[in-house]
Design brief:
Layout: H1 2-16, H2 18-62, H3 65-70
Helix pairs in contact: 1-2
Length: about 70
């Protein structure tokens, strides 16, 4: 559904102002390439925080904190 909406908006832009639509079509891959390192950085930080959380919660899990919270 999102793709159909984007295609419809792009076609509307093509009708109203075709140079801007062509520029958007050509700029999209370049913007995607510029955002790729930021996505990789986000994935790396998310994994690091998940590991840190798992390490900090390990003593509570070993002592049965999850079972005590459920009871």
């Amino acid at each position: 559904m999102k793709t159909l909406l984007l295609l419809t908006l792009w076609c509307l832009l093509l009708v109203l102002c075709w140079p801007l639509a062509v520029l958007a079509l050509l700029a999209w891959p370049l913007l995607w390439l510029l955002c790729l390192p930021l996505r990789l950085l986000g994935l790396t930080l998310e994994a690091a925080f998940a590991l840190l959380r798992a390490l900090l919660m390990l003593p509570a899990r070993l002592l049965g904190g999850a079972r005590a919270a459920l009871s």
